[in-house]
Design brief:
Strand content: 5-15%
Helix content: 40-55%
Number of domains: 2
CATH topology of the largest domain: Rossmann fold
CATH superfamily of the largest domain: P-loop containing nucleotide triphosphate hydrolases
Structural class: alpha/beta
Radius of gyration: 22 Å
CATH architecture of the largest domain: 3-Layer(aba) Sandwich
Order of helices and strands: HHHHEHEHEHEHEHEHHEEHHH
Bound molecules: guanosine-5'-triphosphate, magnesium ion
Strand order of the largest sheet: 3-2-4-1-5-6-7-8
Length: 323
């Protein structure tokens, strides 16, 4: 989803570098292009405006234009500000938590909560943790079974007391089970709705109060665009959200809207979902995303091929840690 933004920015950078000495009108014209590129990627318009203002202030001031390598300076400023825009807080779970740590997954219907619960427990297992899963979704008939199936697939323990249909009792029961059996993380899946409604918010508040989560993750479908921001803000206001999980970033969503969530709602992106498999979850790292915008060195040193494939190759290198 980041390819077209990456390509657009790369064109802007190439133009800047071709200019030799930079002048204010040249930088202004580059900023106009960057603004269009971000808007086309569906980044929230207020966020775009603030971003362009910050880059302008830094790029035109501080002797940057008079330096020996002004284009390189401006490119670096844009990259730094992109990292700041998408969140420079470290992804993953919060550093401090009690034992067992409790992760509550919240979000609208179909956003990917149940899948994320299983993915997260799989990721935690790889970190040497012992997670226990539980579903509090007693409304949708197949929801509890969906988590059981995912748990079996992944070899994860799912707490599912037969016949218990009270969401709070299910969540509290999982806490007791975890303490008794030595699980150090409890991942609580919750019910979703098409829209935010009072009954859901009451239920989620009661579950939250019963389990006191250290991490309340709002699961947002990146395909829903600007709506993801609006509902994240509402969940944050009513329940309190510590981080966002952006799912379906492997799809053809432009993604910029969901990425703006950190700037608009002020909540960091904790994880990104990149597919339907249990391993398709990664702690969010803004610099990794922005590393897809190639730097001067990477463009010059890539042998042959189109600039687009260069960017993709570099991003693969960086993601696999070989750079
Ligand atoms: N491509 C892709 N699909 C995903 C991702 N995360 C979840 N899905 C799919 O999205 C659909 C809905 O996921 P669920 O986990 O059931 O969503 P939910 O939020 O639990 O839904 P409700 O319980 O009905 O509110 C499923 O088909 C998942 O396989 C992702 O990162 N990428
Ligand atoms: Mg679900």
């Amino acid at each position: 989803m980041f390819d077209s933004l990456s390509n657009r920015l790369q064109d802007v950078f190439r133009t800047l570098r071709g200019e030799g000495r930079l002048s204010e009108p040249v930088v202004e014209s580059a900023l106009r292009e960057i603004r269009m590129a971000l808007l086309e990627a569906d980044v929230n318009f207020k966020v775009v405006k603030a971003f362009v203002d910050r880059v302008r202030e830094r790029a035109i001031g501080q002797d940057v234009l008079r330096s020996l390598t002004p284009a390189q300076h401006v490119v670096k400023i844009v990259r730094d500000e992109l990292v700041a825009l998408f969140g420079d807080a470290p992804g993953g779970l919060r550093p401090d938590a009690g034992t067992p740590r409790v992760v509550l997954l919240l979000g609208l219907q179909g956003s990917g909560k149940t899948t994320t619960a299983a993915k997260l427990a799989t990721w935690l297992t790889k970190q040497g943790r012992h997670p226990l899963l539980t579903s509090t979704d007693v409304r949708r008939p197949a929801a509890i079974e969906q988590l059981n199936v995912l748990g079996r697939q992944a070899g994860l323990r799912v707490f599912d007391p037969a016949g218990e249909m009270d969401p709070v009792a299910r969540a509290s029961g999982a806490m007791t089970e975890a303490r008794n059996l030595g699980y150090d993380v409890v991942v609580v899946d919750t019910a979703g709705r098409l829209h935010i409604d009072d009954a859901l918010m009451h239920e989620l508040t009661a579950i939250r109060d019963a389990v006191q989560p250290s991490d309340a993750l709002y699961v947002a479908d990146a395909m829903t665009g600007q709506d993801a921001i609006k509902s994240a803000g509402e969940f944050n206001r009513q329940i309190g959200v510590t981080g966002v999980v952006l799912t379906k970033l492997d799809g053809d969503a432009r993604g910029g809207a969901a990425l703006s969530v950190v700037a608009v709602v002020g909540v960091p992106i904790a994880f990104v979902g990149l597919g339907e498999r249990l391993v398709d979850l990664e702690p969010f790292q803004a610099d990794r995303l922005v590393s897809r915008v190639p730097s001067r060195r990477s463009i010059r040193t890539m042998p042959g091929g189109s600039s687009r494939s260069c960017a993709a190759t570099i991003s693969r290198w960086r993601i696999s840690g070989r750079s």
